[in-house]
Amino acid sequence: MSLSPILITSSGTTTTYLPLSTAYPAQAGCSSLFVNPVLEGGPSLFAFDPGYATHNTGPACVPSQASLWWEQNAATDLTTRTELGGYKMVCPEAYKTVAMSVLDQSSTRVGCCPSGYNFVDWASAPNPLQCNSPLPTQMITYIQTVASGTWTTTSTSISEPTSIWGVQVNGILFAKPEATSTNVVTSIAEPSSTETSDSTSHHSELARGAKIGIGIGSAMAFVFVCALLVVGILFWKRRRRLATSQSQVAIEPQYSEEDQKSFHNVRTEECDEQRPTCTPCTKRELVCHFQPNTGFENGQSPLDGATDPLLRERSQGPLPARTLELKLLHHFITSTYMTFFPRESDVYCWQVHVPNMALEHTFLLDGLLAISALHLAHLETSAKKSWLQTALRYQDLTLAGLNKALCRISSENCEAVAVCSIFVLVLSSAIPGVFDDPDDEASRNPLADLLGLRKLLEGMELVITQSEAVLRNGVLKDFFLPVLDPEAVKPRPVVPGAEEVALLNGQKLCPQILTSLARLESRITQRSSKNQTELLEACKSLSEIISPLSTLSQPPALTWPHKISTSIFSLLERNDPLACLLFFHYGVVLDIFSYWWFTRTAGRRLVRALLVYAKEVDKEWEEWVEWAKTTVGVVD
To answer: Is the pTM above the cut of 0.85?
Structure first.
């Protein structure tokens, strides 16, 4: 669906922002169609010039919106201007996102250069000195103007290596307002949208104490996990400061002691802060990394100083360090990635792009190795303890490195941060099931787990908005497409085997679950409560997940806790019987989706943990609770 232009009037000038909502298709030959606008020839050669097709037979190398932007009158005293941008800003297929610059809280400048060209500095139309690429010795053909004002085709030999400029496509990405009645905005503050060739930084300070969850929306090839285990790691209770340089967006948070504890808790279980080693780390025979606050008040990163030696040590495990990491990497690209049931178009991303990116970003490599080790713990039960310890050590390294990367998130690393954040969520979801320790289950708080997942998901929209241009146009653009544009991706077919069996079993259970949910809705309607509406909406949304249940590749099963009102969690905490019954139903639904090795026993663990809240449930529901326990495999 095409988007309407945005009009902004400021200081007497009306600027029309033309959206680029889809990637303009790459045109054959554009990389070698050169223009020399200098009269009678000269040293300036340009590729991807919007005017090439005007002066010579050839394809239109950029979309029509970019041509209007490039060829407009450049005079400074005009009352109207044309810029690119809007609520979507997608680079053409033959281009890549090379720079992002936060202008203010609602707008980000996005710079696109032709693939193979390097970003030099921001440049405004019609100045093409932003994107540059080496040009080896060769015979080239280009068009140029002559004294008569006409254009002619000329060939010449490049005798020495030189460089060539490529016309940029730059625009402004605006944050979507919660509700808008018109696309016309008048008399607003200057949005700093006009580009300059100077290297100008724009800073904006947000309020102190803002609670912001940070995640990266990402589209893993397995669409089910991609949106359901979406994104990121958290910045809780911290001050956010956005600072922009020429080519990167920096986010510099400050962490409190509680923040460190929160990152520590991402692993699997609530940290009880016992010194020198907390209880969860004691059980897993690991060194505890929760330390008192040191240096966070002045903005110093916890990793800027000395790092615990254990975080640098990768040799502890079932194999020597070099052999271990080689085995884990090999296992990931030959086995683990296939358990995510990637689309055919994503296999290359999993086997090549993600590992290559991991070799450039150590925190992503550690996350990849942790996932691989955990998968081996699932497969090799005789060596499970050893592989679990390896996975947990690499997870520690991942969290430490990701923490540091989040302090310096930019267009250069946001794809790696996005993938790594998904790895972190897969790890935190998978470890309890792979660990499979009844004592561990008994010590867990299901309410805290659900709230933790909710917090992780809350940051999705913020970071997707800030990173969307890079994710849409980077090397992993197909990888992230299902989350960025779900309607553009067809649901993948059911995979024969475990998924097919799980779907058939789920379809058999659905009528009983739906009948029981309808009964629960009736009971909620009979009870007068200020939370009645929230409970009814939650019942309805849970019913919609399985009505009908035609595929297991859809996200709502695990994102459901993020969609419901927070008041329902408060009701559960107060042992409200209706809230408890609602979550029992969710546990059975979740069990249908627990056939993946990384969601193993999730429904069963939730139902088992909810039994402590079931004391106030009416006797008429006791039979259903017993049915739920039997269905998910809870044995007294």
So the answer is: no
The answer to whether residue 1 is domain-embedded is no
pLDDT score recorded for residue 251: 28
DSSP helix/strand/coil, 112:
strand
Identify the pLDDT of residue 333.
Answer: 94
Most confidently modeled range among 42-46, 265-269, 396-400, 478-482: 396-400
Q: What is the mean pLDDT of the chain?
A: 73
Q: What are phi and psi of 215, to 5 degrees?
A: -145, 165
If you write DSSP's letter for every residue of 21-85 in order, what string do you get? -SPPPP-TTGGG-EEE-STT--S--EES-TTHHHHSS----S-HHHHHHHHS---TT-SEEEEEE
pLDDT of 41 strictly over 80: no
Report the relative pairing of strands 118-119 and 107-114 from DSSP bridges.
Answer: unpaired
Tell me whether residue 493 is in a domain: no
DSSP letter at 491 equals P
Phi, psi (deg, nearest 5) at residue 242: -100, 125
Q: At what angle do helices 460-473 and 477-484 cross, to 10 degrees?
A: 140
Asked if residue 393 has pLDDT above 70, the reply is: yes
339 and 263 in a common domain: yes
Which of 56-70, 376-390, 522-536 tops mean pLDDT? 376-390
- Could you tell me the pLDDT band of residue 285, with boundaries at 50, 70 and 90? low
- Does any domain span residue 212? no
Question: Which amino acid type is present at position 266?
Answer: V
How far apart CA 194 and CA 8 sit, in angstroms, is 12
CA–CA dist 470, 411 (Å, integer): 6
Q: Which of 30-44, 90-104, 485-499 has the lowest mean pLDDT?
A: 30-44
Residues 504 and 450 in one domain: no
Q: Which residue has the higher pLDDT, 249 or 420?
A: 420
Q: Are residues 281 and 191 in the same domain?
A: no
**Domain range enclosing 85:** 6-200
User: Which residues, including other chains, have CB under 8 Å from residue 141's CB and lie 6 or more apart?
Assistant: 34, 153, 154, 155
Q: Which residues of 282-311 are buried (b: 16+ CB within 10 A; e: fewer)?
A: ebbebebbbeeeeebeeeebbeeeeeeeeb
User: Is 58 within 8 Å of 141 (Cβ atoms)?
Assistant: no
DSSP structure string for 400-458: HHHHHHHHT--TTTHHHHHHHHHHHHHHHHHHHHHH--HHHHHT--HHHHHHHHHHHHH
| Cα angle: 455, vertex 468, 224; to 5 degrees | 55
Check whether residue 274 and residue 413 sit in a common domain: yes
Residue finishing a domain among 431, 457, 488: 488
Examine the domain organization and report whether 469 and 507 are in the same domain.
Answer: no
Asked if 603 and 592 touch (Cβ cutoff 8 Å), the reply is yes
Q: Give yes or no: residues 127 and 272 share one domain.
A: no
- Shared domain check, 440 and 296: yes
Q: Would 206 be classed as within a structural domain?
A: no
pLDDT recorded at residue 562:
78
Residue 420 near residue 363, CB atoms below 8 Å: yes
Give the C-alpha separation, 616 to 622, whole Å.
Answer: 10
Q: Are 151 and 142 in contact (CB under 8 A)?
A: no
100-109, 148-157, 275-284, 341-350: which range is least confident on average?
275-284
| Inter-residue contact 252 to 299 (CB < 8 Å) | yes
Quickly state the pLDDT bin for 370 (edges 50, 70, 90). Answer: very high
The burial of 3, by beta-carbon neighbours within 10 Å (0-12 exposed, 13-18 middle, 19 or more buried), is given as middle
Whether residues 385 and 345 fall in one domain: yes
pLDDT grade for 473, boundaries at 50, 70 and 90: confident
How many domains does the chain divide into?
3
